[in-house]
Design brief:
Strand content: 35-45%
Distance between the termini: 99 Å
Shape: elongated
Radius of gyration: 30 Å
Helix content: under 10%
Number of domains: 3
Largest sheet: 16 strands, parallel, barrel
Number of strands: 44
Number of helices: 4
Amino acid sequence: MLKSIKLVILPLSLLIINCSLFIVMSSCSLTTQTKTGNLTGNVVLNNDTGNSALDPVDYAGVTVALYPLAVLNPVIKEVNTAHPNIGVQINQETEFDHRLQNPVKIATTNAGGSFTISKINKGKYNLVVMKEGWGVYYIYDINIKEGDNTIRKGNSVLRENVIQLYPVVVLDGFIYEPFIFRTDHNYLISNNVTINANVLFMPNSRIWINPTKKITFLAQVCTDSLNEGFSSVSSSDGFYSSTQLQESQLERCDGLYFYDNIDFANDRLQSIIASFSLNGLTVRTSGINIRNLICKNNGIGLQLDQQSNIIIEKSLFSHNDNPNYGGIALTGCNQTIVKQSIFASNIVGLWQHTSSDADVNNCYFHQNQAKDIMNSYETISSIEHCKFEESAIAVETSGRSNTNVSYCDIQAKTGIVNWYQLGWTSSQFSAHNNNMDCSQYCVKTRTITYPEQGFIYFNCENNYWGVNSSSAIEGKIWDRNDEDTNDPYYISYMGIVDYAPFFSAPIPTAGLE
């Protein structure tokens, strides 16, 4: 017996709605699927040393990893855009370090050297190729599109998608023959190395120095100025790591030492990135131009001792954390110019001691933890057309120093600090035509001298103090008038800041030019 079947006929309008909903849901499920790309290539282990013992058996076991792009400091990028003549134009080459990130995709080559990375989300990545004994190789800004992709290095397509690695050159002890740090080659400083012969740094060479070890140069040094790119010098710690390490985990090398009055080709030292060292670059040669230098994540970035006629320009010093000496440390130097450079996120930006005729101009200082510029014992310095932002102290001067600050844009907790040092030894300072917008004090001074010598007036005329009345300006100044009269030394606090006349609006010509 057949069962009766009830036929339900839906209204036409409801059918249309249901069909439309089905179409929309189907369309959404299709369009929201992430479209991916594939990257296929080949790695060749190229033994160019002439030592047949290093010939590879096959090309297997090479790690090929895609990394997210390094995040570029937006403040520095803004300065790069607004003032392209100041600092270094940061990019993936200057900022990326594979040790500080986790890869998003990773593959290993087979015996023939081929590799494939599949299902890569569309976008830009940095490609890192590495194998122990064969170093690391970076390709920046690879743009992954849907489907199959070719490997580009800059604007060029790699021939047949082939990447070449060369044997790591291990250096130790003394070198007496001319030496070249070659492009796309890796060098491991296993122990302290002294090179007593001419040296050429080629761009895109990588020098890895074992923790606490150093390189000393005793003959001519040439840093290539004809080709773009940097020589990279860093600690070897985490050299082959493919998992993320913290900056604080990396054990630092000692650094590079350029001793003593050696010859620099064209009187230039340039285009070096120095990172994760205790002492960065130490230079003991006068009359040279240091430029296009990046010193980051060191103790001291760059230090010079007892040198004269030095120009440091168009460089970047960031995250150098020695609490005393800073991104640049100058001791006993004469006629030094520091210009068109960026100091960001150091503990101290620029430290000068017993240095004379030091000119700092057109530099940008940002978020240096303790102070931007420290002029200590017997330093004579002018600071002009600089910009200071978000630091504890912009300029500190002490101990028979004499500092003039003019045409600067100062935004800090405290603008200018002046202290006595070594007993009753006071410093002189002056400030003119500056814009000072400081959350605590624009100028803070304590000067000790014998009362019979009379008051010491510090000339701080013709500045804009962020306010426009005398009473408000006095609130931005800390001098003798703010000392505790019950202090037993009060009678010897003789420094007074002379701030009149003053501007009631910002000075348009102050700051970076």
